[in-house]
């Protein structure tokens, strides 16, 4: 891994967080093995990293600025974005987009909040860069969509689970009879067919 040392630890010491004082400065010789140290480097790819190192990889807390101006500030593990962190996009398509939350292996994963370039927002669960789990999408026109998401797509409202569970709790019989009774009850309540199917698929095995 080729690295170019661009700044001394003495200069950086005025700007680094207090919790980084425990780490010594990385050596200026780029052929050295960087381990348990704090330093600033420019890579041949154009990336600039300021932060902690371990086993010759970005590890711990640090900030990486990419050639196009995009920036990630947060936690790293073995050279990858991993843990709590903030990413800001700068490319023409996603300019102004910002994600604050958890990462896993360089991907948005876990609880997080993202603001899109058009002003829309999503707050909730992510799974490998997609909305997945429980979350709320806020549209820039004031409308919102709250519930369960899968692979980036909205599935159903969260309250659906509660309603389904109440229906099931009121019935103690075989699965076949349970399904038929639930379908009949929900249909009488004016539920649409797709909602009934989602209820059964979600809560009846």
Describe the structure.
By secondary structure, this protein is of the alpha+beta class. The protein has helices at 9-12, 159-169, 175-188, 193-203, and strands at 4-5, 37-42, 48-54, 57-65, 71-77, 80-88, 98-104, 107-115, 121-127, 130-138, 144-150, 153-157. It has a twelve-stranded antiparallel β-sheet. The model is unreliable at 1-20 (pLDDT under 50).
Tell me the strand percentage band. 35-45%
The largest β sheet comes out as:
12 strands, antiparallel
**Structural class given helices, strands, pairing?**
alpha+beta
Determine the N-to-C terminus distance: 52 Å
- Low confidence ranges: 1-20
Average of pLDDT: 80
Number of helices: 4
List its salient traits:
alpha+beta, 12 strands, elongated, disordered N terminus
Topology summary:
Elements: E1 4-5, H1 9-12, E2 37-42, E3 48-54, E4 57-65, E5 71-77, E6 80-88, E7 98-104, E8 107-115, E9 121-127, E10 130-138, E11 144-150, E12 153-157, H2 159-169, H3 175-188, H4 193-203
Antiparallel strand pairs: 1-2, 2-3, 3-4, 4-5, 5-6, 6-7, 7-8, 8-9, 9-10, 10-11, 11-12
Helix pairs in contact: 2-4, 3-4
Concise summary:
By secondary structure, this protein is α+β, with helices and mostly antiparallel strands.
């Amino acid at each position: 891994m080729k690295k170019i040392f661009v700044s001394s630890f003495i200069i950086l010491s005025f700007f680094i967080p207090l919790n980084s004082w425990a780490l010594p400065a990385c050596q200026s010789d780029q052929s050295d093995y960087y381990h348990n140290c704090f330093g600033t480097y420019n890579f041949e790819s154009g990336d600039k990293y300021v932060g902690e190192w371990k086993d010759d990889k970005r590890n711990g807390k640090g900030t990486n600025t990419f050639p196009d101006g995009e920036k990630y500030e947060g936690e790293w593990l073995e050279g990858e974005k991993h843990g709590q962190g903030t990413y800001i996009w700068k490319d023409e398509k996603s300019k102004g987009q910002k994600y604050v939350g958890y990462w896993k292996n360089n991907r948005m994963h876990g609880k997080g909040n993202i603001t899109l370039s058009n002003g829309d927002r999503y707050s909730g669960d992510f799974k490998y860069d997609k909305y997945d789990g429980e979350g709320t999408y806020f549209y820039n026109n004031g409308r919102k969509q709250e519930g369960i998401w899968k692979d980036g797509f909205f599935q159903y409202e969260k309250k659906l689970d509660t309603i389904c569970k109440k229906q099931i709790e009121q019935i103690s019989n075989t699965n076949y009879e349970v399904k038929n009774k639930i379908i009949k009850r929900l249909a009488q309540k004016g539920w649409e067919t797709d909602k009934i199917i989602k209820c059964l698929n979600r809560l009846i095995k």
